[in-house]
Amino acid sequence: MSFYSPYDEDVVLREERLMSYPLAPSLAEAERLAARIHQAIEEATAHSVTDLRVIVEGDSVTLLGRCPSFHIKQKAQHAAMRLAPGSLHNEIVVAWRR
After folding, report:
1. What integer pLDDT is reported at residue 97 of this predicted model?
2. Of 49, 55, 62, 53, nearest to 94 (Cα)?
3. Is position 58 within any domain?
4. What percent of the chain has pLDDT above 90?
5. Which DSSP string do the residues of 29-77 spell out, in sequence order?
6. Residues 6+ positions from 62 with CB-CB distance below 8 Å
7. CB-count burial class (<10 Å; 0-12, 13-18, 19+) for 33
8. At residue 86, does pLDDT exceed 80?
9. Is the pLDDT reported for residue 48 higher than 80?
């Protein structure tokens, strides 16, 4: 006698989806990735982003800091996009200089 439950199928599908996602990097790998992204942004923007912070949590990257224009913010985002393993959140604030 075979017992079938739709719940069993859902579990199998969930497990298959989980296997396709990358595993969260270790703390040391996250720190190295944050340092590489930070360096790439500094080079791409000629050190125009002040108080730059790069936070890596799992496959998510968040950018924090201040810059003088939207163009610099966009350059920072594109530099980070080349290295970010997953989602990228650009929270850099544009502070106009007078």
Report:
1. 65
2. 49
3. yes
4. 60
5. HHHHHHHHHHHHHHHHHTT--EEEEEEEETTEEEEEEEES-HHHHHHHH
6. 54, 55, 88, 89, 91
7. middle
8. yes
9. yes
How many independent structural domains does the chain possess?
Answer: 1
Asked if residue 89 belongs to a domain, the reply is yes
A 10 A CB-CB count for 17 gives: 9
- What residues make up the domain containing 66? 24-94
pTM value is 0.71
Which CATH number goes with the domain that contains 56? 3.40.1520.20
Give one word for 20, left, alpha or beta, with left for phi > 0 and alpha for psi -120 to 50.
Answer: alpha
30 found inside a domain: yes
> Looking at the domain assignment, is residue 86 inside a domain?
yes
Chain segment 2-33, per-residue pLDDT in tens: 444 444 444 444 444 444 445 444 788 888 99
